[in-house]
Amino acid sequence: QLQLQESGPGLVKPSETLSLTCTVSGGSISRSTYYWGWIRQPPGKGLEWIGSMYYSGRSTYYRSSLKSRVTISIDTSKNQFSLKMSAVTVADTALYYCARHHREDDWFDPWGQGTLVTVSS
Amino acid sequence: QSVLTQPPSVSAAPGQKVTISCSGSGSNIGNNYVSWYQQLPGTAPKLLIYENNKRPSGIPDRFSGSKSGTSATLGITGLQTGDEGDYYCGTWETSLSAGVFGGGTKLTVL
Q1: Looking at beta carbons, which residues of chain B come within 8 Å of A105?
Q2: Tens digits of pLDDT across chain A (121 residues)
Q3: Are B61 and B49 in contact (CB under 8 A)?
Q4: CB nearest to A114's CB, from B44, B90, B102
Q5: Are the CB atoms for B88 and A46 separated by under 8 Å?
């Protein structure tokens, strides 16, 4: 059974770069058809898609409002994908989830358990 | 403000049926599949419905989905207290090449 697990610092200072990694187990990240994505949820609010990348890296989609600050990358040798978000502000404080993205029909499954990132000095 | 519009909350008694609507436009729901997610308190979202009306393995048939034009609906029958949580619709916004979610609906089982 495919499982995803986010990891990374829980506290980031304003203006610095947020870096998270999602480790995939129980299956290969290189399987075709799927994208691998990041979604976040500010405290007490709804889901916000951040971006998704095809396993080969040949195709990537980003939320337009975050595009200038976000980079998603994939390391197939480690079965991991990562999120980097630069110049963070308190508005980037959220639960960050990674998920497999079935881009052809647009559904996300499975999801990681999520990791809380707080932006504070 | 979400591209997809959901009611903030719905409620019903145990054993009853509830529906949750998700309204969009031609560039999202109108031209793409809709999925639904259940988020129980303190947990990650879980896929309930994909491709408008299909249930992943392990999801009981109490949960159903439908789509008509630029709107979609999630139905839940035989409500249980364990169904209390937040429900989100999702799809693709073709004009933005972006994933989009509804604002979420809080289900209360009275």
Answers
A1: 33, 35, 50-51
A2: 999 999 999 999 999 999 999 999 999 998 767 999 999 999 999 999 999 999 988 999 999 999 999 999 999 999 999 999 999 999 999 999 999 999 989 999 999 999 999 999 9
A3: no
A4: B44
A5: yes
